[in-house]
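Entry for 2-(butylsulfanyl)adenosine complex. Fields follow.
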Amino acid sequence: MEKKKIQIKYKNYLKLLQKYNKYYFEKNEPLVSDKDFDQLKENIFSLEKKYTFLNSKNSPSKTVGFKPSKNFKKVNHKVPMLSLANAFSEEDLLNFEKKITNFLSKKTDFKIFYSAEPKIDGISASLTYKNGNLVRGLSRGDGKEGEDITKNLYTIEDIPKKILSKDFPEDIDIRGEVFIQNSDFEYLKDKFANPRNAASGSLRQKNSEDTKKIPLKFIAYTFGFENGLKVENQSDYLNKLKQWGFKINPLNKLISGVKNLIENYNEVEKKRADLDFDIDGIVYKINNFTLQKRLGNVANAPRWAIAHKFSSNKAVSQIKDIEIQIGRTGALTPVAKIKPVNIGGVLVSNATLHNEDEIERKDIRIGDTVTVERAGDVIPHIISVDFKKRKKDNLKFIFPEKCPSCGLKTIKEYNLITKKKDAVRRCSSEGYFCEKISVEKLKHFVSKEAFNIDGLGKKIVESFWSLKLIQFPQDIFKLDYNKIENLEGWGKLSVENLKYSINEKKNISLDRLIYALGIRHIGLENAKLLSKYFISFSNFKNLSKTNKYNELLNIDGIGETQVNSVKNFFSVSINLKVLNELEKLLNIKKSKNEDKNGLLKDKSFLVTGKLNNISRAEVKSLIEENSGTTVSSVSKKLNYLITGEKPTKRKIEDAKMLKIKIINQDEFLKMLNKTS
Ligand code: IVH
């Protein structure tokens, strides 16, 4: 009996350790402190020492000594590490090419060459070389700021530490993917769900000796900052990388024409299962660097590249239940709880049903046998129901007309733009008074890209909410720490830590604050655009008084949907109260307009007529890059009217009347020290 009890205890410890590992590595959301983690391992070791009959392949004594760290130094990337837009079909690719051709103002027969590179599903890294020496290695982080993981990257054999080639740039960030080959993943299988997680976990080891034990590989494919790079296109760059001693993907190809891209895509997809590394698609990059520069970036992805994703993995399972989740915008999202099924190495037990219409359209019912699809990091969803397997008692699902959280009625809004009723049903509460919405709003408020409050994770927000410690964002900054100290699981030290991290975040930038408010349709990029426009918090807050919502339409990237949403936000009195309270408690930094002193500072422009070899979109981004603004009509606020072929007469007449300078394309380019 005694022996059995010990074995159970031992097994439970191991299970707990596995759970902690999973949360840490896969969800990046540690459940316990480093100290508690180590303590648990110690408990396991001491049991094993005392009772030699204990033995498990999952014991930390048998596996690599993982000790992940959260404490890497944060370093800014000199040039941000962007992500990529996705394409799933030939149509998406045709659209991509069309947009590029339009942006560059080229004829439709303009031949674009692409560097087609299989997209390895690993972890990207940026390696800084100075005078041929590897001096620093950063993880991607949030794209702007990475973690200094130089020591760990140093252990990777594929990464050259010194490059002597004469034509190697004196200063360059070489970027590429760190990954684990499938064959090497075999013995890490117990610890991680897939090779990608294994690569990420290994790279973030506290002790680089532990990273060294893992056979990580590196393939190079792009660069960030550079000084002295003498190549003009991506394919030449890839060749250079090879000459300098980097590994490049052997399946890279130079291709033109969407038809040929598709042919290559099909060929690579056929080879996919035989490759020793996971790929999830093909990246297409415009080969010519000059064109890449002209195309520039949108939000956080380049206009000149796209990732053509492979179709996903599918599996058959059964729906056990349908749950309604309530998001921070009040949207009711039905989620199917399915019999757990392994799809491409990941155990899936939830699948989104998107919205009420989707359930109706696909006639999805509890008890049904369904095909589930999981594509990349997208939430799994149900593609079809096997009606042959439907039982008589699988009844139609009735979508709740009342919010399951607060009981208020749910509504489908009328969308002014699509002129249709929304597919999504929402709780009609104003937010903070519906428990689920409020909790979700608060989780968003403290999340990484918003206030990023360490130690105030999702579980804690939930528990503080249920204990009535927080309901509105401002409550976070007025917490009753004495009460918290007496709660189970809390102590003096943990409360001190929480207090410290909350106080630290009282200094906040305007863009983060706007994002944190969780206004619908205002994500990170839009929050940045708004903060640049308003500069100060008081300007932003005063919008409720000035009512100048339509002026927001002048911001490039902000459309009617966003403006309506901002207007809605300000029309709710509790939101105004939250803003006033936050203003009192926080130190909100004014938005820095990064290159406010560009050549077109304080100048506004409007284009009329067709320009030569340059599209409207490119002119707009040129103006904004140089600190100018664009407006949509001729008014006193306009400084320059740029005219091209066949301009609108009315605009010219109005401009003349208002004594606005009228310039042509050459004169405009001259202002930027450029010629056409
Ligand atoms: S280029 C500027 N090239 O895909 C464009 N990325 O979704 C971004 N990736 O974070 C980098 N293979 O981790 C580029 N041949 C390739 C790639 C590649 C894989 C990953 C990389 C990046 C992500 C973007």
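NOTE: The mean pLDDT is 90.
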